[in-house]
Amino acid sequence: MNCKYFGMCASCTLFDKSYDEQLTFKLEREKERFSNFTTMDFDLIKSSDKNFRNRAEFRIWWEKDENGDEILSYAMNDFKKDILKIDSCQIVSAHIQEIMPKLLDLLMEDLILSYKLFSVEFLGSTTNDMLVTLIYHKKLDEQWNELAKQIEEKLNIKVMGRSRKQKIALSSDSINETLTINNQEFKFAYQEGGFTQPNTNVNIQMIEWVLNNIEDSSKDLCELYCGGGNFTIPLSTKFNKVLATEISKTSIKSALNNCDLNNTNKITFLRMSAEEFVQGLQEVRTFNRLKDINLKDYNFDAIFMDPPRSGLDNTTRNLAKDFENIIYISCNPETLHRDLEELTKTHEIVRFALFDQFAYTNHIESGVILKMIR
Ligand SMILES: C[S@@+](CC[C@H](N)C(=O)[O-])C[C@H]1O[C@@H](n2cnc3c(N)ncnc32)[C@H](O)[C@@H]1O
C-alpha cells in the first residue's frame, strides 16, 4: 500500500515499513516481550495490505471556496493533532472507499444536511450492507429526515443521524453480516454503537484459530466480555452449552438477536460486568439477573475472555485460574503480559498467536491458550 498521506495522517504510524517489515517488527517485539513465559513459535495471522477496515470514523471539515460556497472535506488528525484534510483512505474497505466521495457530494447539495455536521461513521460488511452515521452539533428535524432518506435511496445505504440526546435511525440501526468460518456460515446483525471487530478478514481467522486449537468438549464454556456473540456463537459448536456475559446492554441485545439468526439454543447471555459475574458465581453477592439461572447446572472446563485494553481485574484473573482451559484474546500486549504473570503460576501456555488487525499501526492483537498444570 502506498498512501499519499503517509507521514502526515496520524492514523497510520508504521508508514515507513513495507507490510512484511511491519509484521517482522511486531513479531520480534512481542516474542521479546513474552520471552519470560515462552520461547515457542507464535502463529502469525496477517491482514490484507489495504482495504481491510470495515469500520471507520472521519471528522468533517468546513471551509469556503473562492466563490464563497461551503465545501466539506473528510479530515483526520496529523501528528501534531492538527486537522489534515483527506479525500480518500486506503485502509478502509473498497465499499467504504466508493461511498465516501459520493456521500460528501450529496451532503454538500443541501445546508440542512451539511450544516453543523462534524463527523461521519461508516460501518460496512462483506455482504455490502452499510450503515452511515452522521453526527451533528444541531437538532435534527423532519426536513433532515426527508433529505437523509434520499441519500439512503441514492447510495443504497442505511443512514442514521445523531446529535445531543437524539438518535434517528431511518431504515435500520444495524447491518447484516455473514461470516464463513471453517466453511460454515454464521449470520450476524451489527448494531450501531455496539462493539464489532474492525478487520473482518482477520476476525474470521481469529475465530478459526481458536476453533482449530481447542478440542471438542462434552462440558460447558464460560465466556466473559462476549460483545455481540462474535466468538460465542461459532465456539458454541464445540461445547455442550455456553454461559456468556457482557457489560453493554446494546451488545447483549445484539448477541440475543445473533443467536436467533443462527438458530442457536445452547447459549445463555447475561448482561453483567465481569466483576459482578465473579461475585455471582462465587456466591458473595446475589443478583436479580441470575435468579432464573442455576449456575450449578454448568460444568465448565474452559473460560474464554476477550477483555478491553485494561485487561482483567484482580477478581476475574483469580477466577480464571480455577478453569482447566483458558482462552485469552487480548487487544493490549501490556495488560496481557501483566495477566500472564499470574495465570502462568497455575497454567502453561500451549499456543500463542498474533493477529494483525491494525496493519500500518504499532497495535497487535494476541491469542493465548493455556492449560492447567497438573
Ligand atoms: C474487545 S471487546 C470484545 C467483544 C467480543 N468478544 C467480540 O469479538 O466482538 C470487549 C468487550 O468487553 C465489554 N466490557 C468492557 N468492560 C467490561 C466489564 N467490566 N465486564 C464485562 N464486559 C466488559 C465491552 O463492552 C466489549 O464488548
From TrEMBL:
<keyword id="KW-0819">tRNA processing</keyword>
<protein>
    <submittedName>
        <fullName>tRNA m5U54 methyltransferase</fullName>
        <ecNumber>2.1.1.35</ecNumber>
    </submittedName>
</protein>
<keyword id="KW-0949">S-adenosyl-L-methionine</keyword>
<feature type="binding site">
    <location>
        <position position="197"/>
    </location>
    <ligand>
        <name>S-adenosyl-L-methionine</name>
    </ligand>
</feature>
<dbReference type="GO" id="GO:0000049">
    <property type="term" value="F:tRNA binding"/>
</dbReference>
<feature type="active site" description="Nucleophile">
    <location>
        <position position="331"/>
    </location>
</feature>
<keyword id="KW-0808">Transferase</keyword>
<dbReference type="GO" id="GO:0005829">
    <property type="term" value="C:cytosol"/>
</dbReference>
<dbReference type="InterPro" id="IPR029063">
    <property type="entry name" value="SAM-dependent_MTases_sf"/>
</dbReference>
<feature type="binding site">
    <location>
        <position position="225"/>
    </location>
    <ligand>
        <name>S-adenosyl-L-methionine</name>
    </ligand>
</feature>
<feature type="binding site">
    <location>
        <position position="246"/>
    </location>
    <ligand>
        <name>S-adenosyl-L-methionine</name>
    </ligand>
</feature>
<dbReference type="GO" id="GO:0008033">
    <property type="term" value="P:tRNA processing"/>
</dbReference>
<keyword id="KW-0489">Methyltransferase</keyword>
<dbReference type="InterPro" id="IPR011869">
    <property type="entry name" value="TrmA_MeTrfase"/>
</dbReference>
<dbReference type="GO" id="GO:0019843">
    <property type="term" value="F:rRNA binding"/>
</dbReference>
<feature type="binding site">
    <location>
        <position position="306"/>
    </location>
    <ligand>
        <name>S-adenosyl-L-methionine</name>
    </ligand>
</feature>
<feature type="active site">
    <location>
        <position position="331"/>
    </location>
</feature>
<dbReference type="GO" id="GO:0032259">
    <property type="term" value="P:methylation"/>
</dbReference>
<dbReference type="GO" id="GO:0030697">
    <property type="term" value="F:tRNA (uracil(54)-C5)-methyltransferase activity, S-adenosyl methionine-dependent"/>
</dbReference>
<dbReference type="Pfam" id="PF05958">
    <property type="entry name" value="tRNA_U5-meth_tr"/>
</dbReference>
<dbReference type="InterPro" id="IPR030390">
    <property type="entry name" value="MeTrfase_TrmA_AS"/>
</dbReference>
<comment type="similarity">
    <text>Belongs to the class I-like SAM-binding methyltransferase superfamily. RNA M5U methyltransferase family.</text>
</comment>
<dbReference type="InterPro" id="IPR010280">
    <property type="entry name" value="U5_MeTrfase_fam"/>
</dbReference>
